[in-house]
Design goal:
Layout (H helix, E strand, L loop, with lengths): L1 H26 L6 H22 L2 H25 L10 H7 L9 H8 L4 H13 L2 H10 L6 H21 L7 H20 L3 H7 L8 H35 L3 E5 L7 E5 L4 E5 L1 E6 L5 E3 H6 L13 E5 L3 E5 L3 E6 L5 E5 L10
Parallel strand pairs: 3-9
Antiparallel strand pairs: 1-4, 2-3, 4-5, 6-7, 7-8, 8-9
Length: about 350
């Protein structure tokens, strides 16, 4: 029976990760629902956990820790390389050309920027809290994996290598920027978490939780397994449905059309939109909504027909900068300022030159 459960566990995990991978490749830079992906991986980890307490064998518990690590690494790679990242490209020349100028080696510069400057709350949480907790699960799993990681030296070695690898892959895949504050938040957050575990003497009790069946009745274990399995299958089906519907929608519905103005263009044209400004650089853009009604870009923005909080519905994200987010359509480029919410629009070759600074 144990062998059948373990095989079932591996099959479900493999299938679910393949579905997630397909979804990630197709829609990662359109999606910002991090909580959905996080919930998905928590369910997969819970499935592994319940299989462990059903089998209730030391060998299975040790194997499960490795499975948790694999699931965490997949999620970490997804969040740092794919989700809401630009279309990654190996050693993109244009990306490398701007990479060096945007490196931050000044400690706490970016942290202070997000704390002090007028940056929207979502961006602050994503960059500060997200980076702070990103490696906490790794610190936790290292403690479960081997007692040699119950020291700061053991923890720091793995954490530092992990952050270096993230930065390396972000560089070669054109998916991020080198910032010393990422190191500070990632490693500092994980070590703070590890310190709390040590000071509160929670390491051994937690290790016991992951190496016993918690005296849960057998029937309860199987009920939990069925419920979690159903939840995972439901999410797999939703991903598959989304793949087959949204892919067609995104390919068939072209929200924007534009043409470049070459005559009598005097550069940026400013349009006041209330609490922000729209700057249009020698392009004429029209927007078509889901019901095929046509609007100028100004009308669509002024009437809130375009959802400014979900621009990645219409565009692919090219890159995140400290003060701006760059989006691109097949015909034009758009970037939004993180602090002022100003929007700049130009042809597809338009480059960001610090307009939001």
């Amino acid at each position: 029976m144990d062998k059948k459960l373990i095989i079932f566990n591996y099959i479900l995990l493999l299938f679910s990760i393949m579905v997630f991978g397909e979804y990630l490749i197709n829609f990662a830079n359109y999606s910002s629902v991090f909580i959905v992906f996080l919930l998905f991986f928590i369910l997969l980890a819970l499935h592994v956990f319940v299989i462990g307490i059903i089998c209730n064998k030391e060998k299975i518990y040790k194997q499960n820790i490795k499975l948790y690590l694999i699931l965490y690494i997949i999620l970490l790679i997804s969040l740092t390389i794919f989700i809401e990242r630009p279309d990654f490209a190996l050693f993109d020349a244009k990306y490398i050309g701007t990479y060096a100028s945007e490196i931050n080696l000044i400690p706490f510069k970016t942290i202070i920027h997000f704390l002090v400057d007028n940056v929207n709350l979502g961006t602050k949480i994503y960059n500060l809290v997200g980076n702070l907790i990103a490696l906490m699960p790794l610190s936790f799993l290292l403690v479960l994996l081997n007692k040699k990681y119950e020291t700061y030296k053991g923890q720091l070695k793995v954490l530092f290598i992990t952050v270096l690898l993230i930065e390396f892959f972000q560089f070669i895949l054109s998916a991020g920027r080198l910032d010393i504050d990422d190191f500070i938040l990632n490693i500092g957050g994980a070590l703070l978490f590890f310190t709390i575990l040590k000071k509160t003497k929670l390491i051994n009790p937690i290790r016991h939780l992951f190496n016993s069946d918690l005296n849960i009745p057998k029937l309860t274990k199987y009920i939990l397994l069925v419920l979690i399995t159903i939840a995972i299958i439901v999410m797999d089906v939703l991903f598959i449905i989304d793949l087959n519907t949204d892919r067609n929608t995104k390919q068939e519905h072209d929200y924007f059309s534009s043409y470049e103005i070459t005559d009598n263009c005097n550069g940026l044209r400013k349009v006041e939109m209330g609490n922000y400004n729209l700057y249009i650089d020698c392009v004429d853009i029209s927007f078509t909504d889901e019901e095929d009604y046509h609007f100028t870009l100004e009308e669509a923005l002024e009437q809130n027909i375009i959802d400014l909080n979900n621009l990645n519905k219409y565009f692919k994200i090219v890159e995140f900068l400290e003060d701006a987010t760059i989006y691109r359509d097949d015909e034009f480029t758009l970037f939004t300022c993180n602090s002022s919410k100003d929007i700049y629009v130009g042809n597809k070759d338009m480059q960001y030159n610090g307009e939001c600074s």
